[in-house]
Fold this protein.
Amino acid sequence: MSEPSKARARHHILSVLVENKAGVLARVANLFARRGYNIESLAVAPTDDERFSRITIVVDVDSAPLEQITKQLFKLVNVVKISELDPAEAVERELLICTVSAQPALRSQVIELVQVFEGRILAVGPDALTVSLDGNPGKIDDFEELLRGYGIVALQRTGRVALPKLDASPARLRTAS
C-alpha cells in the first residue's frame, strides 16, 4: 500500500454547516490551531441556502480525538450542524490543476495520461501543459504521482469536499389496493 493510501484511511471527514457570516471560517481554523489539531484538508463554500456555508474538514485521526473536536466546534456560536462522514459511506471529490513539463517529444504521452484519467487540458504552451482533474482523492493522488515523472512546474489541489452516499436501494412503489 502506498503512503497516500495509508494517509487516506487514517482520517475523519467532518461536514460542518455554519452560518454564512464573516469571520466564521477564521474562528473554526483558530479552534483547530489552538488545540494543535492537524487539518489535512479544508474546503468551504455557500450551500444552496445563502444563509449557510458548508465547511468540509479532513482531520488526521492521530492528532485529533473526534469527540473533543465536535464538542469544541459546537461551542462556536455560528455552527449549526456537524456530521461525521465515514469515508466508506461518503462521496469525496477533489480538484487538481497542474502545469506539467511537456516537451514536444513527450507531449503526446502527457496528453494520453490526461485522457486515461478523464482529465482536461486547460492551456498549452511551448514546453508545458496546464491540466485539470477532478475525482476521488485516491484517483487524484495516482494522477499526481504519474505527472511527477514529467516534471511538475506548479500544482494546486482544492482539498476534499464530501457528502453522504445516497441510499442505493430502489424506492418501493405503493399501489392502491
Remarks:
- The first strand starts at residue 11 and ends at 19.
- The chain is about 30% helix and 40% strand.
- Strands lie at 11-19, 39-46, 52-60, 79-85, 90-101, 120-124, 128-135, 152-157, 161-164.
- The CA atoms of residues 42 and 57 lie 5 Å apart.
